[in-house]
Amino acid sequence: MATNRTFTMIKPDAVENGHIGAILEKITAAGFRIVALKLTQMTVADAQEFYAVHSERPFFGELVEFMSRGPIVAAILEKENAVEDFRTLIGATNPADAAEGTIRKLYATSVGENAVHGSDSDENAAIEGVFHFSGREMF
Ligand code: ABT
Ligand code: MG
């Protein structure tokens, strides 16, 4: 995957709360091109694998339960400086610390249920994109 791509998920809380359309609008209005997109659900095993880097953290069990409890929207996005610019667009992990106008400020409820994911490096963006999409689903 090229370095101008990132991977995102609209998390179960934001899907449950009816924010898919508003969040996709914010993403495309910010200049990201949608490379891949689908509604899907992670199994418990998927969520454990996806968040394996956090497996020793005290919140891991809750995180896995949350991320597998309902459908998510997974997407690969393309833009210059995609990883950094997308994390700016979504705001801080804890919505209480997120800047005004960011997706998490608008739609997240707590640090544990923070509405949207954004890859934290080009390397992880590539790994996470392939975790969710086949080559035939990327455009
Ligand atoms: P993600 O985009 O979900 O990876 O969030 P972000 O990179 O902003 O933050 P990190 B540190 O990667 O958090 C991963 C998930 O763990 C949750 N979390 C984090 C807690 O529940 N409690 C905590 O104290 C911390 C630090 C938030 C993230 N997401 N979810 N869902
Ligand atoms: Mg993270």
Main features:
globular, 7 helices, four-stranded antiparallel β-sheet, 139 residues, alpha+beta, 4 strands, binds 3'-azido-3'-deoxy-thymidine-5'-alpha borano triphosphate, binds magnesium ion, single chain, Alpha-Beta Plaits
Please identify the oligomeric state.
Answer: single chain
Bound molecules: 3'-azido-3'-deoxy-thymidine-5'-alpha borano triphosphate, magnesium ion
Provide the spatial order of strands within the biggest beta sheet. 2-3-1-4
Report the radius of gyration as a whole number of Å.
Answer: 14 Å
Largest beta-sheet characterization: 4 strands, antiparallel
The rough form would be described as: globular
Count of individual beta strands = 4
CATH architect. name? 2-Layer Sandwich
Distance between the termini: 12 Å
Helical residue percent band: 25-40%
Q: Count the helices. How many?
A: 7
Under CATH at level 1, the class stands as: Alpha Beta
CATH homologous superfamily descriptor: Nucleoside diphosphate kinase-like domain
Low-confidence stretches: none
Q: Helices and strands: which structural class?
A: alpha+beta
Can you describe this structure in just a few lines?
Helix content is 40%, strand content 17%. It has 139 residues and is α+β, with helices and mostly antiparallel strands. 3'-azido-3'-deoxy-thymidine-5'-alpha borano triphosphate (ABT) binds at residues 11, 54, 59, 63, 66-67, 93, 111-112, 114, 117-118, 120.
